[in-house]
Amino acid sequence: MSVNAKPIVIKIGGSTLSSSDTSLQDLATLQQQGYVPVVVHGGGPIITQWMERQGLRPRFVRGLRVTDAPSLEIVVAVLTGLINKQLVASIEALGGTVVGLSGADGAILEAKITQPDLGFVGEIVRINADPILCLMKEGYMPLLAPVGVSLPTDSEDECSLLNINGDTVAGHLAWALDADKLIFLTDVEGVLDSSSQRISRLTAGEAQGLIASGVAVGGMIPKLEASIKALERVPAVHIVDGRSPQALLRAIDGSDGGGTWLT
């Protein structure tokens, strides 16, 4: 394991996957510098494209994708297959040492359905960090697709795969790993107030207030909820615009004055 053994959990979103930003090179560079990045990736725009090809209409509630059975097949195939392995290949080509896996592997993300109206969307009930820790120990960068597993509780139950929001996964994983930092790379400049102005710093209580008041909407809701969870153990969370060159490296070294810090 690296001398900088306390991990940094990083969530990269669909904007990173579809643009020419430097996030993947930044990840390889961080690893080469001795940091321990643990990465959770999304892929919402690509999932939406594949759903539309199949004549399925994407629908979201509080920033969470409603996932029926046909949609779940697309989510699992695209996240754990197409996107995860493309990212692995890209980071390896940039000099990183990475292993891609999903939350179903080793039951890393054990989840259950708590909101039936969302379909096969899971709420995390347990993080089994052992596979992640083993990869870290051997010098690999874990790259996790946010698909979880619902394990049977008795002989009549069925095991099923579940779609889990990537921001939610990142928050829980940072909490479970006692991470040094949690960083969200997104396609907005940070958390915005009611006047659409960027908020530079927030406490967990203030973040909860933005959700309760309706100021935080859409995909920012799960980001803030994940931040609140992580802050129970993690010293700081940074939500930054990943479209900016070297945004991740600047967030790590503290030279990025943009985005929103939560402490």
| Helix segment tally | 9
Give the helix level as a range of percent: 25-40%
Structural class: alpha/beta
Describe the largest sheet.
Answer: 8 strands, mixed
Number of discrete domains? 1
> What separation lies between the terminal Cα atoms?
27 Å
What would CATH call the homologous superfamily?
Acetylglutamate kinase-like
Question: Oligomeric form of this entry?
Answer: single chain
Annotated CATH architecture: 3-Layer(aba) Sandwich
How are the strands of the biggest sheet laid out side by side? 5-8-2-1-11-13-14-12
Task: Characterise the protein shown here.
- With 263 residues, the chain is of the alpha/beta class.
- The chain has a single domain (8-262), classed as Acetylglutamate kinase-like (Carbamate kinase), CATH 3.40.1160.10.
- 37% of the residues lie in helices and 22% in strands.
- The chain is built from nine helices and 14 strands.
- The protein has helices at 14-18, 23-32, 44-53, 69-93, 130-137, 166-177, 204-213, 220-230, 247-253; strands at 8-12, 37-41, 60-61, 64-65, 98-102, 109-112, 123-127, 141-145, 147-150, 160-163, 181-186, 201-202, 237-241, 260-262.
- The protein has an eight-stranded mixed sheet with strand order 5-8-2-1-11-13-14-12, with helices on both faces. Strands 3-4 form a two-stranded antiparallel sheet.
- The mean pLDDT is 91.
